[in-house]
Design goal:
mainly beta, six-stranded mixed β-sheet, 37 strands
């Protein structure tokens, strides 16, 4: 099945390496590793520019060199800023879109589920706006190594097109589960490794309906003849490996799937803090994802899965259970190259309890837990909260991993927004935490509007002539930057 879309000349290529890059797509790279390149100078961290003229969606922003693009509510749905916070242009064709995808030939592309658009850096269109014939919410776009662009829609369709926006293929994951016909529908933007997209899905029986957001389905909105039946069937989940090609037929092909089942009581709370958030990440032939799976009786287990992609089959390498719901997955390595035999390759699992956030480092190959760092303990020891231990703390944004510009870090450096409640007073902060034997809060700074940071943190990063290095953050009211480089003062 082909989506009835005309061609559009974009003529672009996406940034291709996983390191030393701005955050140019959901997860900063198609692998969803949340790696950014950022130097640290904790002596001079300060708020840079800020604007409250737009209402951010809560997804954060994407960036390339000296520009950053942030989805906002309503229309214009996308705003592009310079490194000094100047509004360069706005997209009036998009209404509340997901995160856009930047590419190096001076432009970006985005789709709000109704329109697919491409822009030059100055905001002029690269061609006519493409109207989606059968609109539904679109997740953030991604891209394979061979310049195949993929969109996942909340109605279940996967759609690919080339650099000229000419359609390549589309498909629905129609299946039969225990005698029930339906479709496995995406609930997260895919992660990509090479030419394969890894798609987390839930089962939606025929005759059931749902409302979806960009990063998780709103499963409590299920309706139909039997909402309870629809809800129960939606606990069946699958991770699909979908291979993409320009040449072969079929051009989009499922190579394998891995089925699991989440706890029934979680269906109405996907995306909420108390129940965790779905997370997905690819690295070097393996895919890692989180889910709170069904146990015996009323038990449920927050779990991280590691699946090896073995071509047309998969191998379950390991699983790890956690006491608290999984909130985020990030990646870290101190390798100078992929063949560095002495390097450390780690998955960083962020879990959330009612009063604390834990960061657990896990060996990617063995699944062995290496260390557990409590944000509560770090803040109590060196975060200016030494007068009391009666406080709660929670991470509110995606968890980024910084790769310093001045060389490889021997320990993970995390960047995130968090909230501290102390003596009935609530503080919303952005901080940088270095893990390791002696975890250390490198810096922290309050948000300018006293609201929590959400979504991913994007960074400006140019090879030459770049301004002071900055993070761009969003709250529900404000888009602002934090200067972290040598020129922060």
């Amino acid at each position: 099945e082909m989506l009835p879309l005309p061609g559009l000349l974009f003529g672009f290529h996406l940034l291709g390496a996983a390191f030393a890059l701005p955050c140019h797509v959901q997860g900063c790279h198609p692998t969803r590793q949340y790696l950014i390149d950022l130097s640290h100078n904790g002596q001079s961290v300060a708020i840079g520019w800020q604007t409250a003229q737009h209402a951010p969606q809560g997804l954060g922003c994407t960036s390339v060199c000296d520009k950053v693009a942030c989805p906002v509510n309503a229309s214009p749905g996308l705003v592009v800023f310079s490194a000094k916070g100047k509004t360069l242009w706005k997209s009036r064709e998009l209404n509340s879109p997901p995160l856009p995808l930047f590419y190096v030939d001076e432009g970006l592309v985005d789709c709000d589920g109704h329109h697919l658009v491409g822009y030059f850096y100055n905001g002029t269109s690269r061609g006519p706006v493409i109207k989606i014939v059968y609109p539904s919410a679109a997740f953030s776009m991604t891209k394979t190594d061979m310049d195949i662009f993929m969109l996942a829609f909340s109605d279940g369709m996967l759609y690919t097109f080339n650099i000229n926006a000419v359609p390549i293929a589309s498909m629905f994951l129609h299946e039969n589960v225990v005698g029930v016909n339906g479709t496995f529908v995406p609930y997260l933007s895919p992660a990509v490794g090479g030419e394969t997209a890894y798609v987390l899905t839930y089962f939606l029986p025929d005759g059931c309906d749902i409302k979806s957001s960009f990063e998780a389905p709103n499963l409590h909105a299920l309706s139909g003849e039997d909402a309870a039946f629809c809800t129960q069937m939606s606990t069946v989940r699958r991770l699909y490996a979908v291979n993409n090609t320009h040449l072969m037929v079929p051009r989009m092909n499922v190579t394998w799937s891995f089925e699991f089942e989440i706890a029934n009581e979680l269906v109405s709370g996907v995306g909420s803090r108390a129940r965790g958030r779905p997370a997905l990440l690819y690295f070097n032939g393996s895919v890692f994802f989180s889910a709170t799976v069904k146990g015996v009786g009323v038990e449920s287990h927050p779990t991280v899965f590691a699946i090896l992609d073995a071509g047309y089959q998969h191998d379950l390498m390991w699983t790890i259970r956690f006491d608290d719901p999984v909130y985020a997955l990030s990646y870290f390595s101190n390798a100078g190259s992929l063949g560095d035999i002495n390097a450390v390759y780690q998955l960083i699992v962020t879990t959330a309890s009612n009063d604390d956030t834990l960061f657990t480092t896990v060996d990617l190959n063995s699944g062995e837990k290496k260390s557990v760092v409590s944000l509560h303990n770090v803040l109590a020891e060196d975060g200016d909260i030494t007068s009391s231990t009666d406080f709660t703390v929670s991470v509110t944004s995606d968890v980024m991993v910084a790769m310093p510009s001045n060389g490889l870090s021997q320990q993970p450096i995390l960047l995130f927004g968090y909230t501290v409640i102390l003596n009935n007073s609530t503080e919303h902060m952005v901080g940088s935490l270095q893990l390791g034997t002696y975890p250390k809060l490198l810096w922290h700074i309050p948000t300018p509007d006293h609201l929590p940071v959400t979504g991913q943190l994007a960074n400006y990063d140019c090879d030459v002539g770049k301004p002071s290095e900055q993070l761009v953050c969003t709250t529900e009211r404000t888009i602002f930057s934090i200067r972290t480089g040598k020129g922060s003062d």
